[in-house]
Structure formats: structure tokens, C-alpha cells
Write a structure and sequence with these properties.
By secondary structure, this protein is α+β, with helices and mostly antiparallel strands. It has five domains: about 100 residues, GIY-YIG endonuclease (3-Layer(aba) Sandwich), CATH 3.40.1440; about 140 residues, no CATH class; about 110 residues, Ribonuclease H-like superfamily/Ribonuclease H (Nucleotidyltransferase, domain 5), CATH 3.30.420; about 160 residues, 2-Layer Sandwich (Nucleotidyltransferase, domain 5); about 55 residues, 5' to 3' exonuclease, C-terminal subdomain (DNA polymerase, domain 1), CATH 1.10.150. The protein contains 21 helices and 21 strands. Strand 5 and strand 6 form a beta hairpin. The C terminus is likely disordered.
Length: about 625
């Protein structure tokens, strides 16, 4: 784009950009965060979006057409920029960034070995206090099954009582042989720690010695005619073997490593991760990415690695990849910092490791094909629902794009609105929008009018701008949660924009699931089995869920910010520095004392105070 065609407000912001390392954030006129990125030279990188080469890329052209403001943060290093970029992407989930659709943390087994009487538990949060971690496991169910099976062989503590060995009575678990009861002195501290050491050895992969010992005990019990004892040991061996069966042996020289590969078509990208621990393939998982269609493979892989390992409890010593990364050096530095030791990023060229990457790639291709086949099988069902809805409402065209609106609040506070979109009966989550209602009075109908009016104002603005912008699409059908009052309120707003004869609208009343339509005094009552009703219910329920999730986030954010304000010694300057470095209060809460104390103006004592007030974040994550 030539400088003469640049909008003046963009030109001024580009001219003011520093030639420094940092992070940039692009916002729309409504304040929505569109894109977050990092750069060694902010001025050069951001200006490239409006260059002739940048404007030839459709995704960049669509993005820049919506940018109203550009915010930048300068940092002392590229590593600090990467950390801030990760935090901002996680907090804002920008529409144009390559994003993980599912950024869940994997469950691990945690053994509090640093305690005199260690406990064993499931966790998704690593605490650097001397505990040992085993995993990752690919589901909570697999962790619970493993712990349940191991506890029968290694009866460990689960209670929070102080262990003195002098208690008068043990709990029920001792009597059903699921706890060794050090609380009453049934075992000494040394004996109890030996039990836990055996459990950790088993989780570390030393299965055979234990299984051989149990088989000998079973045979000896049978020879003594202790058939009941032999049967218990037989069942215990079978249970432990089920745990071992989940771990396939992979002959790649042992060690901990992840194998990452991906597959994509025009619109979808699937990443496959194999988890190898101690030379054993303990699990695999598929991840789906948004906004990966126009990006090159190196960028997609780098974006996935930063988001995935930004949330992972642990980082392996080696990661095998299908190709080199553009940001390999800084990503290795960041991964090494998270792990506390060097991490190797490697593209294997031959041998078993290359075969592993190829196997992961095949799995990614199969997952992608399976997803597309599933979508194809659903298409007929959605088509039938759309045709039924068109017939019921007498619409001139099939309602291929349905927008549904909902208003939610907590006793009149934190009033929010949501807009969700179904295209051909399928949620189009990239087009969902949230609204923080601005009007002061607590009026659901007025709030609904506000969000519909704002949506149509954005439609008018989008018509004046080139490029693909979801705001510029009018729905084939508007759905609102409510009755006749909500329907009339939306019709009034449509009339303001002269769209009352262009955009059909219907209200779905929750109690009787009645449809209120314009020009008809009596509501329409559909059969409960009607596919048209099911389509409307899905849209209504999704809008309600989306509004509630936004409202919950606002409440938590306000509570967290309030808790940060209340920490003695953390004034506005330190608060800004912490938020700038960690991106959010949640990021501050997850940081270690060492990371907090390293911020300019912070001390070890203040870092401890912050941790005491905010906590580690584990309980919050588990809710």
C-alpha cells in the first residue's frame, strides 16, 4: 500500500513506532484485539503489514482493513518479548493469530517427595518445591485409574493430618488396605518412604522387578494352599499389567521427548503430539488450530510450540519436529528457561526418529480425514434442519447464517451480551462476539437493543471498508432469547437501519419453547422432535453459554485486580510493571517467587507477599 493511500490515523501511528524489540497489538475501532505479535525491530515489522508485499497476502489485507489503533511495548530482550506475546495471546485470544482451539493442561501424578511422609495426587500445575512429577497423561480418567491400581500395591497417604505415629485410630483406608497408616505407627517413616519409592520406580518404568516379585509371591501362596491370597496377587498383577500396556515401547534410545507433526488443508490444521517418557510412548493427542490456513509451516509450528509449552506442566529434554523453525534459537532459550535445563529441537533426517515423525504425521492426516468425514456425515442432518426452519418461518431463502443474541447479568451487575453464529447449522466461533453493555439502567430489553444496534453499526462501518470482515455479513435469520417484548425491541432497531424487511427475526421463549414471529399474534409451537426447533435451541443455548463465560471472566478479572490492589507495598508503578511483564493477573499468580522478584522495583519479600495474597493458581485451575 503506497504511503499516499494510508489512512492518516495509521500513518501517524506507524511514523511513531520505535526501532526497538518488543510486542505490538492491533485493535479495531470497537477495541477488539485483532492481532498480537513480537518483533526485534517494531518499526520495521509493523510497517511491513502495510507494505506492497504485505498487502498481497489476503489475511494481512483483511486484518489491516480493520485496524484502528496499534499499541506497542518495548522490552529488554527478545525472550521477554516472547513471554509477553504469549501472555497477551492467551488473555485476548486475537481473531487473526494462529491459536490453539484447546489449550488445556495435561494431568500429571505429583509425589510430594520433599515431605517426610509424601502424598500422591493428580495435578495440572507444577510447583517447584521438590515434588516429583510423572506424566503427562492424556486424560484425567487414565490418571485416576492408574492411581487406583497403584494404591493397592503402594498404599499411600491421602489425608492432611499431621503424622506423628501416635494417633489412637487409623482411618477406614487402613482397614481396607489402601493406606499404610504411618499415623498410628503401623509403618515407620523409613518404611513408608520405601513404599513411595517403589511407586515412583514403577512410574519411572521399572515394572519388571515388581511384577516378577509379585508372581513369585503368588506362586508361593498357591504352594502353601493360600488360594485367597494368591487370587488377590493375581488380580493385582493383572491390574498393574494394564497400566504397563498403556505404555508402548519405542526403541529410540530412551529418554524423554515429544514428537510433533501436523497436517492441514485449506481451512483446517491438526497437530499431533506423541509423548515419549523413558523410551515409552505413553500417549498421543491431537490439537486443532484456528487461523492457520494462510500461514507457512514454520510459523504454524512456532505458534503451536509457544502456546502448548506455555501451558505444559513440564518440558522434555528433546522435541522432534518435521521441519526447522524460523525462531528456533529464541524458542530453545525460552524452553530451556521453562525446563531449567537445555532443550534440543531437532529435525531427524533418518532412522527410527524420522520414522516416529512420519508416524505422527500419518496420525495427524488420519485425524484430519476423520474430522472431515464426521462433518460430511453431519451435513445432511443440518441441511434437513435448515430446510425445516425455512418452511416453518416462511423465509424466502434458507437460513444458512443464523445469529443468536443473549443478555446476561448478575443481579443487575456485569451486564453482558453475546452474539453467536451458526453457518449451515455449524457454530462459526471465529464470528462470535461479546458485548459489555454500556447503559447504566438494568433493563434486559434495552440491553438487547443496545447490542443489536452496536452490531448493525459495525455492519454499516464494515460496508465502507474493503476486505473480508464478519461484521459486513448480514444474517439470514436473527434469533433472540425471549418473547414478544424482545422481538418488538429488535424489530425497532432493525427499522432504524431500514432492515426490518431485509433481516428476518424470531424470538424463542424458554419456558414453553414457543416461537414469536413478526405479524403473527399467536406464537408457533413446534413438536419437541422438530429439527427446526433443535437448531434454534442449539443457537439459543450456545449464546447463553457464551454470554455466561464472558460474565464469569469479567467477575474474576475484577476480583483479581481488586486483590492485586490490596497487596501492601504494590503501588500503581509496581502493579503496571507486573502486569506489563506477565500480561495479566493470572500470569502474575502463576509466576514463581523468583520470577516476581526479578521484576525491577520488586524484592523477595514483596514477591512472597504477592504469592501469599494471590496463591499459586492451582486451585483456580481445577475449579
Amino acid at each position: 500500500m503506497s504511503s499516499s493511500r494510508l489512512p492518516e490515523h495509521i500513518r501517524r501511528q506507524l511514523d511513531a513506532l520505535p526501532r526497538a524489540t518488543g510486542v505490538y497489538m492491533m485493535r479495531s475501532a470497537s477495541g477488539e484485539v485483532l492481532y498480537v505479535g513480537k518483533a526485534v525491530n517494531l518499526r520495521q515489522r509493523v510497517r511491513s503489514y502495510w507494505s506492497a508485499a504485505g498487502q498481497r497476502v489476503p489475511k494481512i489485507r483483511h486484518l489491516t482493513a480493520q485496524v484502528e489503533t496499534i499499541e506497542v511495548w518495548t522490552t529488554d530482550s527478545e525472550l521477554e518479548a516472547l513471554l509477553l506475546e504469549n501472555n497477551l495471546i492467551k488473555e485476548h485470544r486475537p481473531r487473526y493469530n494462529v491459536r490453539l482451539k484447546d489449550d488445556k493442561r495435561y494431568p500429571y501424578i505429583r509425589v510430594t517427595w520433599h515431605e517426610p511422609y509424601p502424598k500422591v495426587m493428580m495435578t495440572r500445575q507444577m510447583v517447584r518445591d521438590g515434588s516429583r512429577y510423572f506424566g503427562p497423561f492424556t486424560s484425567v480418567w487414565s490418571v485416576r485409574e492408574t492411581l487406583d491400581l497403584l494404591r493397592r500395591q503402594f498404599p499411600y497417604l491421602t489425608c492432611n493430618r499431621t503424622i506423628t505415629g501416635q494417633d489412637e485410630r487409623a482411618c477406614l483406608y487402613y482397614h481396607i488396605r489402601l493406606c499404610a497408616a504411618p499415623c498410628i505407627g503401623a509403618v515407620t517413616k523409613e518404611e513408608y518412604r520405601a513404599i513411595i519409592q517403589g511407586l515412583m520406580a514403577f512410574l519411572d518404568g521399572h515394572h519388571q522387578e515388581l511384577l516378577d516379585r509379585l508372581r513369585r509371591e503368588m506362586e508361593e501362596a498357591a504352594e502353601r494352599l493360600e488360594f485367597e491370597r494368591a487370587a488377590v496377587l493375581r488380580d493385582r498383577i493383572a491390574a498393574l499389567e494394564r497400566v504397563v500396556e498403556h505404555q508402548k515401547i519405542v526403541d529410540v534410545g530412551g529418554g524423554d521427548r515429544d514428537v510433533i507433526a501436523f497436517a492441514r488443508d485449506r481451512d483446517n490444521a491438526c497437530v499431533q503430539v506423541f509423548f515419549i517418557r523413558g523410551g515409552r510412548l505413553i500417549g498421543r493427542e491431537s490439537f486443532w488450530l484456528d487461523n492457520a490456513g494462510d500461514e507457512d509451516e514454520a510459523h504454524v509450528m512456532a505458534a503451536f510450540i509457544k502456546q502448548f509449552y506455555g501451558e505444559s506442566v513440564s518440558v522434555p529434554s528433546e522435541i522432534l519436529l518435521p521441519r526447522d523453525l524460523d525462531e528456533a534459537l529464541i524458542i530453545k532459550q525460552w524452553l530451556g528457561q521453562r525446563r531449567g535445563a537445555d532443550v534440543v529441537l531437532r529435525v531427524p533426517r533418518e532412522g527410527p526418529e524420522k520414522e516416529l515423525v512420519e508416524m505422527a504425521t500419518r496420525n495427524a492426516l488420519e485425524a484430519l480425514a476423520h474430522l472431515k468425514a464426521h462433518w460430511a456425515s453431519q451435513e445432511h442432518r443440518h441441511t434437513a434442519a435448515i430446510e425445516a426452519l425455512q418452511q416453518v418461518l416462511g423465509l424466502p431463502h434458507p437460513p444458512l447464517r443464523v445469529e443468536c443474541y443473549d443478555v446476561s447479568h448478575t443481579q443487575g451487575t456485569h451486564v453482558v451480551g453475546s452474539m453467536v453464529v451458526l453457518e449451515k447449522g455449524v457454530p462459526r466461533k471465529g464470528h462470535y462476539r461479546r458485548f459489555c453493555v454500556r447503559q447504566a439502567r438494568n433493563d434486559d430489553v434495552a440491553s438487547l437493543q443496545e447490542i443489536v444496534r452496536r452490531r448493525l453499526n459495525n455492519w454499516q462501518e464494515a460496508r465502507q471498508q474493503p476486505g473480508k470482515n464478519p461484521w459486513g455479513l448480514l444474517p439470514d435469520l436473527m434469533v433472540v432469547d425471549g418473547g414478544r417484548g424482545q422481538l418488538n425491541a429488535v424489530l425497532a432497531v432493525l427499522a432504524e437501519f431500514e432492515l426490518e424487511d431485509v433481516v428476518p427475526v424470531v424470538a424463542l421463549a424458554k419456558r414453553e419453547e414457543e416461537l414469536h414471529v413478526p405479524g403473527r399474534a399467536e406464537p408457533i409451537r413446534l413438536e419437541r422432535s422438530s429439527p427446526a426447533l433443535h437448531l434454534l435451541q442449539r443457537a439459543r443455548d450456545e449464546a447463553h453459554r457464551f454470554a455466561l463465560s464472558y460474565q464469569r471472566r469479567l467477575r474474576e478479572r475484577q476480583a483479581l485486580r481488586s486483590s492485586l490492589d490490596e497487596i501492601p507495598g504494590i503501588g500503581p508503578k509496581r502493579r503496571r510493571r507486573l502486569l506489563r511483564h506477565f500480561g495479566s493477573v493470572e500470569g502474575i499468580r502463576r509466576a514463581s517467587e523468583e520470577e516476581l522478584a526479578a521484576i525491577p522495583g520488586m524484592t523477595r519479600k514483596l514477591a512472597q507477599r504477592v504469592k501469599e495474597h494471590l496463591g499459586s493458581g492451582e486451585a483456580s485451575h481445577e475449579r
